[in-house]
Design goal:
Helix content: 40-55%
CATH superfamily of the largest domain: Histidine kinase-like ATPase, C-terminal domain
Structural class: alpha/beta
Oligomer: single chain
Shape: elongated
Largest sheet: 7 strands, mixed
Number of helices: 17
Distance between the termini: 92 Å
Radius of gyration: 35 Å
CATH topology of the largest domain: Heat Shock Protein 90
Number of domains: 4
């Protein structure tokens, strides 16, 4: 028995974790401390015996809390406590302990295990600081992109707007060709900006896919018709082949699906000098009410080397540096497409041979629409009804334009005047608010970033005023702030619609009509 006790004591003393026994009598003192606990406190075992927790605990309140907890619950688990070593060094500890009685059943004891977690805590704090720093950096990046978007879109709105307006005037062939070339370059610049914003959104998880029923054939036919112009310029045949078994009505994000397909078909046309580009869709698998569709875009272009086929889906990556010089592009399109495909529970890959051509494949899972989509006849009737509604009827609207940039004012006024509408221009939000107090307007086109009172604050102020007046004026944001969260902030502020700059005339008219229909 004596030998067993000696072996047990040696075992306890050889452990790397501190072990102690503490008396809870009126004197409160350590009755036992193993070697690890002594080393932790930089004291000998004899020095520890007879001392109390009050002597080595840095925070009396912390000790009081632990004492109350163990007396109430009978134990503590993984609690933190700060102890002080003999040399004054602070030690962060984790303690596990139970309430017990001595062998006579009289005095209360605490038997505990204690571990030095100072380094772990420092590491955790370091990780926390790194996490905070990363979040701050990501926030700064998002803010930079938002500001960059705004600063670039503002002059681009004037450039593209003026080009569009001028192209509608009488021009000779050389003038028209020059302006169309400038318009194409401006559109390419806008696409680049959109790609940069998109890759930022998907990387930060700020893109949320919609789940809306749509006609797949109509979407793909639209893509085919839109890009056939580009294909025809290169004498390339563009084919769209949809398997008859493919569901007509599916539920998903048609905008993002269209974006993927356009990117792949556009690339195929770009890298094909002669031959054809074919877009095919079929059903890969059926899962109860869901269908996994497989899309492919095949071309007879330059092909991609085997050793480059994986890297082309990386951000800013292209198969060859000379590709950028010859064909242009940033290498963002495929990276964005891959991330969007993954969000659709699919995958994307390529099969290619240099000099022969490439075929890009991607899959996506979509819920099958249970109800029939409106026929074209019904849609036409619906469209006629909308045109006959008061908001869409040919009438003169009183429009208040709140915009501080002179060039943007000029563009918007010209586009609105083409409709025969009356326009009043103000250059800050406070003037817009004052204006509606004195005159009735049908709608406000509201810039977001303005001096004195910005668009969001102005909208909130107008909505508060309307609680008293009982009126409601339609407000549509018209802003160079084009991030997803910007649209959300505008709608949350009380706006009825949102369009981003550069302003597309058709989209602006539709946004105005839609906002008025909600009245």
């Amino acid at each position: 028995m004596l030998e067993t006790n000696i072996q047990l004591k040696e075992l306890i003393n050889n452990l790397e974790t501190g072990i102690f026994r503490y008396s809870l009598d009126s004197r409160g003192k350590f009755l036992f401390a193993n070697s690890a606990f002594s080393r932790m406190l930089k004291q000998s075992g004899e020095d520890i015996l007879g001392t109390s927790f009050q002597d080595i605990c840095e925070n009396p309140e912390e000790l009081k809390r632990l004492n109350t907890k163990i007396c109430t619950d009978g134990h503590v688990e993984n609690e933190w406590i700060s102890l002080k070593a003999k040399d004054g060094q602070s030690i962060q500890c984790s303690i596990n302990a139970i309430l017990a009685r001595d062998k006579d059943g009289k005095d209360l004891l605490i038997d505990g295990v204690i571990e030095d977690i100072t380094e772990h805590k420092k590491a955790g704090e370091g990780l926390l600081q790194a996490k905070i720093a990363a979040e701050e950096a990501n926030s700064a990046k998002s803010m930079f992109l938002a500001n960059m978007s705004h600063e670039v879109r503002t002059p681009m709105n004037a450039v593209i707007g003026m080009l569009d307006l001028t192209l509608e005037t009488d021009l000779d062939e050389d003038q028209k060709d020059n302006l169309e070339t400038a318009k194409e370059a401006a559109d390419n610049l806008l696409n680049l900006l959109n790609d940069i914003l998109d890759i930022s959104r998907v990387e930060s998880g700020k893109i949320v896919l919609e789940n809306i029923k749509f006609d797949l054939r109509k979407v793909l036919d639209s893509v085919g018709k839109g890009l056939s112009v580009l294909a025809n310029k290169k004498n390339i045949q563009l084919l769209v082949d949809i398997d008859p078994k493919t569901p007509k009505a599916i539920i998903g994000d048609s905008t993002r699906l269209r974006q993927i397909v356009i990117n792949l078909v556009n690339n195929a046309i770009k890298f094909t000098a002669k031959g054809s580009v074919q877009l095919k869709v079929s059903v890969s698998n059926i899962f109860e009410n869901e269908a996994e569709l497989i899309f492919s875009v095949a071309d007879t272009g330059i092909g991609i080397p085997k050793d480059k086929q994986d890297s082309i889906f990386e951000v800013f990556a292209q198969a060859d540096a000379s590709t950028t010089r010859k064909f242009g592009g940033t290498g963002l399109g495929l990276a964005i497409s891959r991330k969007l495909v993954e969000m659709m529970s699919g995958k994307i890959w390529i099969e290619s041979e240099e000099g022969v051509g490439s075929t890009f494949f991607f899959t996506g899972r979509f819920e099958i629409g249970k109800e029939e989509i409106l026929s074209e006849d019904k849609k036409e009737k619906t469209a006629i009804k909308k045109k006959e509604s008061p908001a869409r009827a040919a009438r003169i609207l009183n429009v208040l334009l709140a915009e501080d940039n002179f060039l943007n004012q000029k563009i918007a006024v010209k586009l609105l005047e083409k409709k025969g509408w009356l326009i009043k221009v103000v250059d800050n939000g406070q003037k817009a608010f004052d204006e509606i107090l004195n005159k009735n307007y049908d709608i406000i086109l509201m810039d977001v970033q303005m001096p004195v009172l910005d668009g969001l604050k102005t909208t909130k102020k107008i909505r508060e005023h309307e609680k008293q007046s009982g009126k409601h004026i339609a407000i549509v944001a018209m802003t160079a702030r084009a991030m997803v969260e910007d649209e959300r902030k505008c709608l949350e502020a009380g706006m009825d619609g949102y369009i981003s700059k550069p302003v597309d005339a058709a989209k602006m008219y539709k946004a105005i009509e839609d906002a008025l229909e909600r009245e």
